[in-house]
Write a sequence for this structure.
């Protein structure tokens, strides 16, 4: 079985400050991990993924995520937040033996000017 | 332009009517998916298809039906048996390998009057 948790419904950060959006997962095998972003009334856009290799993954728009196997986490980070980063962020996990991802409930990121 | 399209963007339905949501992709992806998104509930899988002429129920398939007669197309019918159909519907596609990310359409917002 696979599952993913995003423990924060909302994250507030000031523009220019670093941001972190948290994600933890559970799988029986090796995980494939994904982050997506959704702007209002739009579809999801892929940001980055972890398959194997380096624990720090770099993605679109300056975002990065750190895979931590011992803590079963895959937190999304950005060194300096922009107001335009305000959106809904989804973490997803696929067990290596599964074709279907499981999505978290989403975290609303609000960046204040 | 390569991508995945959904139509219409907004759809209004009277109770008791069936409606069909369109999803087309020109990415040459084998796998296609339908999700329902409700506020605070993340994405819930309705149906998915890994290959033409084959599809599987997801977590909330009751009251929905699909077909996959062409690789490019995966229409979703919301039947009158669906008790609470008002929601945002997202279609996605991907290569079948588990490490591959999904590409999402822009979504269809269905409102039952």
């Amino acid at each position: 079985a696979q599952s993913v948790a995003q423990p924060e419904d909302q994250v507030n950060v000031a523009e220019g400050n670093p941001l972190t959006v948290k994600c933890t997962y559970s799988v029986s095998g090796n995980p494939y991990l994904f982050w997506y972003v959704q702007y209002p009334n739009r579809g999801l856009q892929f940001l980055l993924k972890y398959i194997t290799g380096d624990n720090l993954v770099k993605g679109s728009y300056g975002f990065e995520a750190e895979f931590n196997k011992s803590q079963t986490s895959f937190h999304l980070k950005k060194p300096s937040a922009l107001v335009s980063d305000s959106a809904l962020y989804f973490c997803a996990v696929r067990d290596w033996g599964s074709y279907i991802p499981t999505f978290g409930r989403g975290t609303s990121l609000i960046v204040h000017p | 332009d390569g991508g995945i399209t959904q139509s219409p963007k907004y759809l209004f339905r009277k109770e008791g009517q069936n409606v069909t949501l369109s999803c087309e992709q020109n990415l040459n992806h084998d796998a296609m998916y339908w999700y329902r998104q409700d506020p605070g509930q993340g994405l819930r899988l309705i149906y998915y298809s890994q290959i033409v002429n084959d599809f599987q129920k997801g977590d909330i398939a009751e009251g929905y039906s699909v077909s996959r007669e062409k690789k490019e197309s995966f229409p979703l019918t919301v039947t009158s048996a669906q008790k609470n159909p008002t929601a945002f519907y997202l279609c996605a596609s991907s290569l079948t390998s588990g490490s591959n990310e999904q590409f999402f359409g822009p979504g269809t917002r269905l409102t039952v009057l």
